[in-house]
């Protein structure tokens, strides 16, 4: 589609002569065919088409195609949430007895999924610091390791993943790198260009941008050679007895195997679909993503600079700040900006942080982030409350940390609200 700006606006759906200019909402569970033979060919994956929205829907596919184009991938799918996208991306290549290497600085829900829920399913995870050395990273791998997982910018620790380092290690061990790119979005970072094999998103965040619909997405780069590591990935390289004996890597190649399996197998069995109505709303959000992200970043940068100079703030984490431990990596991978989220510690500990948050007026306390409206959260008592103090420290979170998500309001209005609230902290 050309530039990323044009792709945001016009990618995914191209109307034909006399067709709707706006992406149609195909709000139907089923699709009609003249013969059972035709439907049989669809079930056998011998033809493209639609037969049940739990597997595929034209509205969803158009929006997935746009996100795929934005990330520079070969195939993509939508899911009901970002959490579902993370789970599908992992479970599509992992099974009981397998192992995952993951950055410790990730979203609390993703940590819980790997450390607890998937462990109950027989999949173990080893967590490594995002600042680990190559030697430390290599030491985390096992013979049964099936993938590496990390976040471009960790939520809420704001650690920047060294994508090239993690990709190099993953590939040397014959496994793909999966990267959650929710915070930067493809407007600010395209992990596939730095070696990532699979990219996930919580589209609930910046992609939607207006807190209107929960959703997720998975994008496959099409670059990982599954057949070259056939023994490691039997689900992709051996016949699927639950789907007519199809071998996904042979039938669909590197470009389509991963997403086809995730759709025809995992979506079939788990049913974590995004509704066509939500996909439609997501598409409207995507059309302005390239315009919104610079304002989010402008406000985030200004808030970080203001907070870092305030006497009642103990510390500030924002990759755009010179002196931040991840500033150099941010300049490498996201030279045009990072995100609108700032994490900081209020001097005086948890009690002072709670007083500060209660005094905010423009900024509201929400279990959300990356919205058009400025909001904040206390991770230790909400999104990450299931973690021990030791796990919180490993994830880069302290009891007094506040996660501030700068919206699209006027920059000075946000700073004024921060200033008056800090007077009461």
Outline the structure in words.
The chain is α/β, with parallel strands linked by helices and 425 residues long. It contains 16 helices and twelve strands. It has a seven-stranded mixed sheet, with helices on both faces. The protein has a five-stranded mixed sheet with strand order 8-9-12-11-10. Helix 7 links the parallel strand 4 and strand 5. The longest helix has 23 residues. It is globular and about 70 Å long. The mean pLDDT is 94.
Mean pLDDT: 94
The H-and-E topology, N to C, reads as HHHEHEHEHEHEHEEHHHHEHEHEEHEH
Distance between the termini: 49 Å
Question: Would you count the extended β strands for me?
Answer: 12
- The structural class is alpha/beta
Largest sheet: 7 strands, mixed
Radius of gyration: 22 Å
Low-confidence stretches: none
- How does the overall form come out from the CA principal axes? globular
Fraction of residues in H or I helices: 25-40%
Tally of helical segments:
16
Strand content: 5-15%
Q: Identify the strand order in the major beta sheet.
A: 1-7-6-5-4-2-3
Tags for this model:
single chain; 425 residues; alpha/beta; seven-stranded mixed beta sheet; 16 helices; 39% helix
What is shown here, in short?
The chain has 16 helices and twelve strands.
Topology diagram in text:
Layout: H1 4-10, H2 36-43, H3 58-71, E1 75-79, H4 82-91, E2 99-103, H5 108-120, E3 124-128, H6 134-139, E4 145-151, H7 163-172, E5 177-180, H8 185-188, E6 198-202, E7 216-220, H9 234-237, H10 248-270, H11 276-286, H12 289-308, E8 313-317, H13 327-333, E9 341-346, H14 349-359, E10 364-365, E11 375-377, H15 389-394, E12 401-405, H16 411-423
Parallel strand pairs: 2-3, 2-4, 4-5, 5-6, 10-11
Antiparallel strand pairs: 1-7, 6-7, 8-9, 9-12, 11-12
